[in-house]
Amino acid sequence: MSGVRMSPDSGRTAVATILMLCGGTGDRGVVAAVDPFPAIEVRMSDSRVAVVTGASRGIGKGIALELGAAGFTVYVTGRTVDAGPIPGTVGETAAQISELGGTGIGVACDHHDDDQVKALFERVGVEQGRLDVLVNNVYSAPDLVPWLNKKFWELPVGAWDQVIDIGTRSHYVASVFAAPLMLSNRSGLIVNVSSSGAVSYGHNVVYGVGKAAVDKMTADMAVELAGTGVSIVSLWPGLVRTELLDMGAQTDGDEIFIELPGEGRFDLSGAESPRFLGRAVVALAGASDLAERSGKPFTSANLAREFGFTDLDGTIHEVLLRPDV
Questions:
Q1: Gene3D superfamilies per the record (predicted)?
Q2: 268 closest CA partner among 236, 235, 313
Q3: pLDDT in tens, 249-301
Q4: What is the DSSP-derived secondary structure letter of residue 16?
Q5: How many domains does the chain have?
């Protein structure tokens, strides 16, 4: 696989189907042992460099592919390096990035392990000498499906840790280690994949708290980054047709839909592809007014209308989980 390198980790499968609809990949799959890092030399990359967390599949993969198509060197992280029942591995994503004209580098990384995250960004610094874009997308909630539409007193207390730790905290930790690389070049963009659940009830209490915390973190980090050349935004997807969503899809005649307990039925015919989110990130990375956008949330559909990009089928989608937000 041209342009693909792997680093070691271990893990186990955890499926978070519904969170794929509104931010995050649920990518915490099985990892096999791989060879250690090859010897590397410090150099300054000639191309723009990105890190996309949780990019074996879903939204993270779509964003990574579009950054690759735009010519980026893209480090994609996740815990899945061997093919399993759910499509997608970090190596497959990296290979597809290279096929699209970028350079894909797959890194097995458990974002629950701060040392592994630190090592990831140290590697980027040594190999590339720069970082232009960080997309914080990793999200893990293996027990989420039975937790949908459950009251907070009906949830196990551990639900808080599952939703907050691999999500809000993971976004914070990656940003901590990424920021010095960007600050050294006085340039960069951090994108936190969030959702409209930050401002409107969705799924359950811990989900909303996690998303609201991501957006508040984005706003406050923007205050501290002001004047540095580094910007940070939140990105709100609409309904996104991911691999996991397709696995849970139902049919009724010609209609293909997903039904969420307590939230209704959603037609998938107008759902966004993961690459639609990628085009939103590429547009933001090239925005001339990026500094003025820092600290704010943006929906993928509004960005498409503003910047003029479309999904792979040429459309701008309007299927939202929370249309009144």
A1: NAD(P)-binding Rossmann-like Domain (3.40.50.720)
A2: 313
A3: 667 777 777 776 667 777 667 789 999 999 999 999 999 999 999 999 999 99
A4: -
A5: 1
| Range of the structural domain that residue 67 is part of | 18-307
207 is catalytic: yes
Angle (CA) 304-169-234 rounded to 5° is 15
**256 lies in some domain:** yes
**What CATH number is attached to the domain comprising 280?**
3.40.50.720
* Contacts with 120 (C-beta within 8 Å, 6 or more apart), sequence order: 51, 75, 77, 107, 109, 177
Which sign does the torsion angle of CA 287, 288, 293, 294 carry? positive
Task: Indicate the angle between helix axes 58-69 and 90-99, nearest 10 degrees.
Answer: 30
Residues 106 and 47: their CA atoms lie apart, in Å, by: 17
Q: Are 52 and 96 in contact (CB under 8 A)?
A: no
Query: From the candidates 75, 139, 201, 207, which is the catalytic residue?
Result: 207
The label of the residue with tokens 């050349």 reads 229
pTM above 0.85, yes or no: no
CA torsion sign, 221 to 277 to 166 to 210?
positive
The pLDDT, as a whole number, for residue 87 is 67
pLDDT of residue 115 exceeding 90: yes
**Confidence band, pLDDT 50/70/90 cuts, at residue 319:** low
Q: What is the mean pLDDT of the chain?
A: 82
- State the distance between the two ends of the chain, measured CA to CA, in whole angstroms: 43
273: left (phi over 0), alpha (psi -120 to 50) or beta: beta
Nearest to 281 by CA among 45, 51, 86: 51
74 in a structural domain: yes
